[in-house]
Amino acid sequence: MKKPDGKVVLLGDMNVGKTSLLHRYMERRFQDTLSTVGGAFYLKQWGPYHISVWDTAGREQFHGLGSMYCRGAAAVILTYDVNNLQSLTELEDRFLALTDSASADCIFAIVGNKVDLTDECALQPEAEDENRSEKPVTSCISTKVQKQVRMDDAIALYKKILKYRMLDEKDVPAAEKMCFETSAKTGYKDLLWHLQECLGLLFVLCHQGHLGSLKAHNHPDLLQIERKATLWTPRKIS
Amino acid sequence: MIITTLTMRTRDPIGPHSRLPGLSGAESWQAHAHGARPCAIAGTRTWGRGLRRTRGRGGYMGGSSRASRPAPALRAPPDRSMGGFHPTPWRRHRPFRCPSRGRAGASHVTGNGAAPSGSSDSGPGRRGQALRRRRGAGGPELRGSRVSGAAETGSGGGPETSAWAAPADWPRGIMSVKAFRLVPAVEREMLMGDKVRINIECIECCGKNLYIGTNDCFIYHFLLEEKISATGKITFAATKQLYKHLGFKKAVNELKAASALNRLLVLCDNTMTLVHMMNLEPVPSGARIKGAVTFTLNENPVSGDPFCVEVCIISVKRRTIQIFMVYEDRVQIVKEVLTPEQPCAVAVDGHYLCLALTTQYIILNYNTGNFQDLFPYCSDEKRPIVKRIGRQEFLLAGPGGLGMFATVDGISQRAPVHWSENVIGAALCFPYVVALDDEFITVHSMLDQQQKQTLPFKEGHILQDFEGKVIVATDKGIYILVPFPLERQIQDLLASHRVEEALVLAKGARRNIPKEKFQVMYKRILQQAGFIQFAQLQFLEAKELFRSGQLDVRELISLYPFLLPTSSSFIRSHPPLHEYADLNQLTQGDQEKMTKCKQFLMSYLNEVRSTEVANGYKEDIDTALLKLYAEANHESLLDLLVSENFCLLTDSAVWLEKHKKYFALGLLYHYNSQDAAALQLWVKIVNGDVQDPTRSDLYEYIVDFLTFCSDQELVWKYAEWVLLKNEEVGVQIFTKRPLEEQQKNTFNPDDVIRCLNKYPKSLVKYLEHLVLDSKIEKEKYHTHLAVLYLDETLRLKSVATDSCAELNGVQTKLRSLLQKSDLYRVHFILEKIKGTDLHMENAILYGKLEEHDKALHILVHELKDFPAAEDYCMWSSESKNLAYRQRLFHMLLSVYLNPGPSDCELVVAAVDLLNNHAAEFDAAQVLQLVPDNWSLQLLSPFLTGAMRQSIHTKRMTQIALGLAEAENFIYKHEKAKLKGRSIILSDKKLCQVCQSPFCEPAFVRYPNGGMVHTHCAANNRLVNANMTHRFSSPSSQT
C-alpha cells in the first residue's frame, strides 16, 4: 500500500452524516449507511498526492479512538447536523479535544449536513419519497423543519477553534470559506469536492511544512490556492 | 467415535471424499466430518458432544456459505455422486441431533428470521453490509445471528442436502473466501491420554519443532511433519520427541524458541529459564530471569547481534518493564522502564514497546522513555491483545470488538477490523488477520478489513502465528490453520464474481510470491476479472483490466461467434479465463446486450490494433474488426480498408459478401492487389447487377481509381466502359494520370486517340490535354485539335442561333489555339476555313503565314474591327523586334489610309492609332504618309508623343554614352594603378640594350618591365619601330 501523503479526518457526533458525506464524495451518490464501527478510510488522489480520508465513528463507544485517528491529520472536518443544535455543541465539547494530536498547522472545516431537511433549503431534494429519513434520529420524515443551527453559529465555533488552537485568524483560511452547509443526500454543494478544489494543495503543503516558506516568498502556488479559495464563497441560503 | 478415525486420518493423506466409497455407514460420515468440518473435530470426544456439534457444523457451512447458498440443482451432483450411500448415516444420526440442539437450536430460529437472507447476498458490497448489520447489532445478538446464518442452510435446505452443501473442497463459486482450513496437529491422547485435569497452557512452534507447555509443568516436544495428499490437501503428523517436567507444581506459562541460540525460553513460576531446544535440559550456567509476569521476544531488535535475543518482560515489580539480552548461557539486563500504569500485555518492535496498561494502550520508546497514548480501553472488562503484525505496526483489541491497527507513531494506517467483543487471541497470516473468540475463528483481510471467513471453534484459548503458521489450541488439542493457496482463494473470489476483493487479494500477495510467478498469476487474474466485468457489461472496467492484464485480444474475440478467421491458430488458454462458450451464452440471446458487446469490441479492437498488444496477431484483430464493422454497417469499415490493415482476404471477402458490402469488398481486393477483381465488382455495382449504396459517386470513384491505376491493361479494359458511361468524365483516366507516369509516357497518345475516336468530346479533351497542358509539340495533335475545334465551330454555327455561349466558347478556344500554336498546318486549316465566315480565324492564319497585309485587310475591311487589328499588330509582333512591330503598325496605318481620306471611319481609326501608339511609329515616315489636309491639332497627341519619344531616345542614348565613357575611364584608371609600381634602381640593374649600369636617375621602362637608358631607348626606337607602342613614362627614382 502506498503511504498516504496527508490525512483528512471527519469528526462529528453520531448520525450527523459523516459516512454519507464521504460516500457522496467518493461515489457521487447518496447511499444508506449503517452506523460506522470504529472507523473507515479511503485513499484519494489529489493531484500528485495520496490523501487518506478517515471516516470516524461518532458513537460514544468509539470516542477514545478519535485521538489516534486525528494524529498527524492535515485537515479536520467537523461535521454537525443543521437540524440538531446539540450536534454542533458536541463538536466543541467532545471532539475539539481530539484534535490535539492533529498536525500543528492542521486546517479546520465545519460542515453542517442535512440542509435538504430544512425549509430553508434553496434546492429541492432529488426525490420526495416518504422514507427519506437518512438517519433514524432525524425527527422529520415528510415535513421540513426550521433549521436549528445557523451559519453564524458555525462561524463562531470556527473562531473558537482558532482560539483553542492558538492560531491567528490571519494565518488560516477565513471562517466564511471554511464553514459550509451541505447535504449528502441531495448532493447540494459537495463539500469534499469543494475542499479538494479549494484546499487540496493547501492541505498537502501545510502537511509538508511548505506553507510558511511559500507565504514568505509569495509563491504563485499559494496565490493560486488563495484565488481558488476566494472563488468559492459560500452561497447564502435564502 | 471421532477419536478412532482421527488417528487414522492424520496418517492417511488421502482426502475423506476419496475414501468414502471404501467406508461404510457411520464411519464414512465421520470421515467426512473431519475433512469438511474441522469444528466437528474440535474437542469432540463423545458421541453426545459430537452430535451436538452438528449444529456447529451447520454453523461452519453457514458462516462461510453465507454469500450464496447453493441452489438445489447445484447440490444435486454430489448427492448423485455419492449415490444412496451417504444419506443413510446422516439419517441415522439425525434423531439424535435434533434434541441435542436444545436452547441453541431455538435461538437459531429467531436469529434466522432476523438475519438478512444470506442466499441473495452475492455481491461483495452487500455481503459486507450484511456483515456489518449483524455486527452492528453487537453483543449477544451477534452470536445468535451468526449462528443463525449457520443454521440457515440446515433449516432451509433440509438435512440431507445441507450435509453436502459446502464441503471444504466443494467447487468454487458457492462459498465466500475460504482462506483457511483447520487441520488437527496434536491430539489429546498424544499429550495427556485420559488425564482430565491436564491442559495445554502454551505452545511454541519453530520449524518442525512443536513445544507444548502444560498446566502440570511439563514441556512436550513434537516433530511436526507436513504431508500433502494426492489431492493437494495438507495434513500433519506429529511425533512425540521428548517431554520433561520442570520440577514445579506451577503451569508452564510461556514458551519461546530462540533457534539461533538453540534455546527454548521457558516461563514458569514467574521465572524465565533457558533449556536446550533438543534435549530440553537446562543450560549448565543456570541463567534465568526472575520476577517475570510475561515476556516477549523482539522480532525486530535494534542490535544486530546474532548471538543473542532481546527479551522484554513485564516485571513483578509494579509498573516495570525490563529489557534483557539473552545469550546462549547467560542473560543481561539492558534497560528498565517505568510505565505510567501497570502493564498487562506487551509487544515490541525496535525500540518501541506497545503496551496494554490498565486503562489504555500506549506506545513507549524504551530508549528515550517517550510515550504516546493510543486509545483508552478497560482491562477489567476484557483481556487486552497486543500483537506485532509487522515492521512498526501493531494490532490491538479496541473497544466494541475492534481490532485496531497502530503504528509506532501512534497512527492508524488501516481501518479497524470488527471482531466480536470477546476476542481471546489474534494472529497474522498475510493478508489475513485471524482472531479467536470462544466460539469462532474469524478471518479478516488486512487489505480491505472485511470479514472473509468464519470457522466455528469452541473452547479455543490459544491462537498464535509462528513463522507464518497459524496454530490454534484448545485445552486439549492443537490444530493448524492451513491457508488455502492464495491463487485458489483468488479463483474462488473470481468465480463468485467478487472482482474487487480478488484483485485486492492478488495485489496484496505481491510481496509473498516470487516476482515472475506473481506477474504471470496477476496478469491472469486481471484477465479473468476483465471477463467478469465484461460479462456484466462493465466495459470501462473490463477494458482497463484487459489492458493491464495484457490480454491476448483473441481471447476476447473468440467469444464472438465467427469473428476469428478460420485460419487462426488461436486456442483459448487453458484453464479457461471465463466460463462462457460464446457471446450468445453470455448474453443469453439478448440482442441489445449483444449489440453493446459488439460495440465494445469494436472500440476496443480499434484502440489496440495499433498498439503492441496486437503484435503477432494483427490479422486476427483486423479481420474481426472488419467483420464487426461490416455487420454493424459502421462507417469506419472503409477507413479500415483504405488504411494499412491486415484483414485476411478469404475470410473477410466471404463476410463482406454476406453483408453485401461490395464496395468495401472491392477495397479489400484492391488492398490485396487484386485491382481487377475490385473493378469488376464496382462496375457491377454501377451497372446495378449488385446492390450496395455505400457510394453514390462510385462511377467517379472508378474513374479516379483507373486514373491512378498503374495497370495499363486494366485501364484499357475498362476504358470503353468508362467512356460509354460519361465521355467527359471518363476521359480523365487518360488526361489526369499522375505526373510521374506521364513523364514515362506509358500510354501512347496515338493509341489513346485511336481509342477515343468514337468519343469526340473525350477526344477534344484528350487533345487539349496533350496540346495545352502537356505542351506536346507535335504537328499532328495541334492540327487535329485545330480541325476538331474548327469542325465544332462550323457545326455549331450551322445549327445554333447567334451568340450561343457554346459557340463562343469553342471559337475562343480555336482562336487562341491558332494564335498561340505555331505547329499546326496553316495551309491545311486555311483551306478548310476558306469559304466560311470565320474572318478572324482567317486573319490569324494569314498572320501565321506572315501575310500581314491580307490579314489586316480582312480585319479592317471585312470585320471593321479596329481594336482587333491593333491587337493583331501587338500579338503578331510579340516575340519579334521593334522594327518588326513598327513595320506592322505602318502596314496597318497604310491600310487605314490607302482607300483615301474619303472613308471617314478609317481616318478616325488611323488618327486614333497614331495618337494611341505614338511610340510604335517612325514619326518621320508617318509624316510623309499623313495627308496634308490633316490639322496639326488632330495629330498633336501623336506629335507630342513622337517628339517626346524622340527626345527621350536621344537623351537616353546620351546618358548611355556618358556612362560607357565613365566606365571606360574607371577601367583605365585601374589599369594604370596596377602597372604603376615603384622601381628600385641600383648598381646591379643593367640596361637591357647596352648591358651597362644606370649612372643617372632617368631611365625608360617598357610595358613588359624591361628598363633601358633613355639614350638607348631613343636609339632602340629607331631600330625597332614596332616597339613604339605605349610604354610607361619614365617613372622616377629609388
From TrEMBL, chain A:
The lineage of its organism: Eukaryota, Metazoa, Chordata, Craniata, Vertebrata. PROSITE patterns: RAB. One of its GO terms (molecular function) is GTPase activity. Belongs to the small GTPase superfamily. Rab family. One of its GO terms (biological process) is phagosome-lysosome fusion. PANTHER family: DRAB5-RELATED. InterPro entries: P-loop_NTPase, Small_GTP-bd, Small_GTPase. Keywords: GTP-binding, Nucleotide-binding. This is RAB20, member RAS onco family. GO terms for cellular component: Golgi apparatus; phagocytic vesicle. It comes from Crocodylus porosus (Saltwater crocodile).
UniProtKB/TrEMBL annotation, chain B:
Residues 63-81, 111-123 have a biased composition (Low complexity). InterPro entries: Clathrin_H-chain/VPS_repeat, CNH_dom, Vam6/VPS39/TRAP1, VPS39/TGF_beta_rcpt-assoc_1, VPS39/TGFA1_Znf. Residues 50-165 are annotated as: Disordered. It comes from the Eukaryota. The keyword Membrane does not apply. This is Transforming growth factor beta receptor associated protein 1. Residues 197-470 form the CNH domain. The lineage of its organism: Eukaryota, Metazoa, Chordata, Craniata, Vertebrata. It is found in: Cytoplasm. GO terms for cellular component: CORVET complex; early endosome; membrane. Keywords: Cytoplasm, Protein transport, Transport. Transmembrane segments: none annotated. The keyword Thylakoid does not apply. CHCR repeats lie at residues 737-901. One of its GO terms (biological process) is signal transduction. It comes from Crocodylus porosus (Saltwater crocodile). The gene is TGFBRAP1. One of its GO terms (molecular function) is transforming growth factor beta receptor binding.
